[in-house]
Specification:
CATH topology: Rossmann fold
Structural class: alpha/beta
Number of strands: 5
Distance between the termini: 31 Å
């Protein structure tokens, strides 16, 4: 269920299989713990000859009226996703010199992740940032979603000194 076409997962950018170390997949958001996880994964990718892939999920739109307004809302959401991916890509490139590949998908994050992990053989790990507040993806993949997890799960703690996330 690609956000642009509604067809299914698609990776944009680099090939779906990295040269040696595979791909570390991260879910992009605007949290501090995501930035910490991104930095840690980028450093690990540099050491292990791996690549970073970024996923930005768009919640499904329930607004189904006035086609022009709906299309504009979709375009704005897509632009926000692309901006977030661009900022994250700059961090990765600054750490390990690589340009990550990316996904922008519409759907519930855990469903999109399960689908991507099932279909992309090059992904070697899912990397999530942990914070003091609950992270629904960590809760899902360490609970009932564990059976759907086909790669190792790396949980990177937020090292923010003041405990704010």
């Amino acid at each position: 269920m690609n956000a642009a076409s509604g067809t299914g997962p698609s990776m944009e950018g680099a090939s779906s299989i990295a040269e040696d170390g595979g791909i570390y997949l991260l879910v992009v958001d605007d949290s501090h713990e995501f930035i910490e996880a991104l930095k840690a994964a980028s450093e690990l990718a540099a050491r292990s000859h791996a690549q970073i892939a970024l996923l930005y999920t768009l919640e499904p739109m329930e607004f189904q009226q006035w086609g022009g307004i709906e299309e504009r809302m979709r375009a704005e959401r897509r632009e926000k996703a692309e901006d977030a991916i661009k900022r994250a890509s700059e961090i990765v490139k600054g750490i390990n010199g690589q340009t990550p590949s990316f996904y922008i998908e519409e759907g519930a994050p855990q469903d999109v992740l399960v689908d991507i992990l099932k279909n992309e053989i090059g992904i070697k790990a899912l990397v999530l940032g942990a914070c003091r507040a609950s992270n629904p993806l960590i809760s899902y993949f360490t609970g009932k979603g564990l059976a759907h997890l086909t790669v190792p799960l790396f949980i990177i703690p937020d090292t923010n000194a003041d405990g704010e996330s």
